[in-house]
Amino acid sequence: MTWRSLRRGLKRVWVPVILRAWPLARLWYRAWGLRLDGDPDDVVWYFAYGANMHDRAFRERRGMRPDEWRVGLIRGYRLRFNLDGHPKGKGAPANISADKEAEVWGVLYRINRRELIRLNASEGIPGWRYRPIWLAAEDLGGNPLDVVTFIADGNDEDGKPSLRYITLLREGARAHRLPEHWITFLEGVGHAE
After folding, report:
1. How many separate domains does the chain show?
2. Which of 22, 47, 68, 159 has the most CB atoms at less than 10 Å from its CB?
């Protein structure tokens, strides 16, 4: 049995349990050095910049049912493809890293904290790759929002996303009507062969 299959098996058992018992979720997060604030029905805004911009990934695969969505951006970060894909070396997934001169466009989804825990689990949080980070964002109208998104310690050098992965980003950006300059940027990202 591989670590990945063991982790998936544990997730199938623990996630349904911790989603029903919020104190257990808090203990689970604390064991990983993360805080889980608020109540399960509290509303939060999640900022998607990768495959979760696409409905097939966010709604169908991850089972999310957002109350609302908006186009949005975070300033002071840039989009990177500096994580190792699976299998290692194949198709680098998206990540963000601090860059005060840059911005990242994406989709803002309004969900509750219980859904966020389920989303976190689908992204391996808590775990060894992504971790949640709270940032200031703004929607297309310039309205400020506090959002949660995911960040990871990436490689120094960027790789290339798979064609399937970058296609999800491009189609998600078009479907949610992100600004044309961001869609053009995504179109210019080369993919792994």
Report:
1. 1
2. 47
How far apart are alpha carbons 132 and 140 in whole angstroms? 23
- Is 127 inside a domain boundary? yes
Whether 108 is in a domain gets the answer yes
SS3 191: coil
Q: Quick one: which of 170, 184, 178 has its CA closest to 107?
A: 178
Closest CA to 153 of 120, 129, 118, 189: 129
Using an 8 Å Cβ cutoff, are 127 and 54 in contact? no
* CATH number (domain holding residue 133): 3.10.490.10
- Cα–Cα distance, 91 to 85 (Å, whole number): 5
Tens of pLDDT, residues 139-180: 999 999 999 999 999 999 999 999 999 999 999 999 999 999
Residues in contact with 143: Cβ distance below 8 Å, sequence separation at least 6, in sequence order: none
The token pair that represents 101 in the structure block: 């001169």
Whether residue 27 is contained in a domain is answered as no
Q: Which structural domain range is residue 131 located in?
A: 35-187
pTM: 0.89
In angstroms, how far is the first alpha carbon of the chain from the final one? 30
